[in-house]
């Protein structure tokens, strides 16, 4: 399917959807501490989204039961919040959240430290975040989609980390998941030509060990096959003819 190009009116809505989600993530980041449950984080996330007049887009998406995906340590993505899942000192926790503002979706993820974490865990978080920024350096009109994928892979591979292949980034707009798919690993073909007005969710998922993952019986949770830690960082961005605009950062 063709990649949609957003009009100026649509871009204004996407900006607002992104700005609100950035605020929600900032608030959620502040409550992360040993002792909080993943259920409490999800409840706060849903409350903040609704207080801002928005709808949580993950809730009931293909039957997903919560508003925030919360993935701890070796969990890669799509962890389900649970009243008995208590965060403890030294954990890393990935929060993936999204919302709909006037029919337009935003999507973003951050991995946080719970209290004091190991130097290895912090490095994984930092490299994952930086890989997003390495990728979007190439996100401008005239470049090709896979320039982004290749830049993420080239950066991450220096550290010997595993890049998840089973899940990818995506276009976003009136749907949470639109074309194109955006792999985080090197590609042989160039992919579609990038054009101003494309809105993309770029989301590297990086494992401290191998790239392979398992899908758990709960139907959602994705974990590293070797039990190594995993981090996730995602923003919704707007492609322009110059620097990309990151819609989900304040
Ligand atoms: Co996404």
Secondary structure: elements and pairs:
Layout: H1 8-31, H2 38-51, E1 55-56, E2 68-72, E3 75-77, E4 92-101, E5 104-113, H3 119-136, H4 145-157, E6 162-163, E7 169-171, E8 178-182, E9 199-202, E10 205-207, E11 213-215, E12 222-224, E13 230-232, E14 235-238, E15 245-246
Antiparallel strand pairs: 1-4, 2-4, 3-12, 4-5, 6-10, 7-8, 7-9, 9-14, 10-13, 11-12, 14-15
This protein binds cobalt (II) ion.
Short account of what is shown:
By secondary structure, the protein is α+β, with helices and mostly antiparallel strands. Helices cover 28% and strands 25% of the residues.
Ends distance: 32 Å
Query: What CATH first level would be assigned?
Result: Alpha Beta
Which ions, cofactors or small ligands are bound in this entry? cobalt (II) ion
Share of residues in helices: 25-40%
- Annotated CATH topology: Creatine Amidinohydrolase
- Quick check: average pLDDT? 98
Rounded to the nearest angstrom, the radius of gyration is: 17 Å
Question: What's the helix count?
Answer: 4
Give the CA-based shape. Answer: globular
What structural category do the secondary elements indicate? alpha+beta
Strand content: 15-25%
């Amino acid at each position: 399917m063709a990649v949609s190009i957003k009009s100026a009116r649509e871009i204004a809505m996407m900006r607002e959807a992104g700005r609100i989600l950035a605020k929600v993530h900032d608030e959620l980041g502040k409550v992360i501490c040993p002792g909080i449950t993943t259920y409490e984080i999800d409840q706060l996330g849903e409350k903040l989204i609704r207080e801002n007049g928005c709808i949580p887009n993950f809730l009931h998406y293909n039957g997903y039961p919560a508003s925030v995906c919360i993935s701890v340590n070796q969990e890669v993505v799509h962890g389900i919040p649970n009243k008995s899942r208590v965060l403890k000192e030294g954990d890393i926790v990935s929060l993936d959240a999204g919302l709909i503002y006037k029919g337009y979706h935003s999507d973003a993820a951050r991995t946080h430290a719970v209290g004091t974490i190991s130097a290895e865990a912090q490095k994984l978080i930092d490299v994952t975040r930086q890989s997003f920024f390495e990728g979007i350096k190439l996100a401008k009109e005239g470049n090709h989609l896979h320039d982004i994928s290749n830049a993420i892979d080239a950066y991450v591979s220096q550290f010997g980390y595993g890049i998840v292949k089973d899940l990818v980034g995506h276009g976003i707009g009136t749907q949470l998941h639109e074309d194109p798919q955006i792999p985080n690993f090197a590609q042989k073909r160039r992919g579609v030509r990038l054009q101003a007005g494309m809105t993309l969710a770029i989301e590297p998922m990086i494992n401290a060990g191998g790239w392979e993952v398992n899908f758990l019986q709960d139907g959602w949770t994705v974990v590293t096959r070797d039990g190594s830690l995993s981090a996730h960082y995602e923003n919704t961005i707007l492609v322009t003819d110059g620097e990309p605009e990151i819609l989900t950062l304040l």
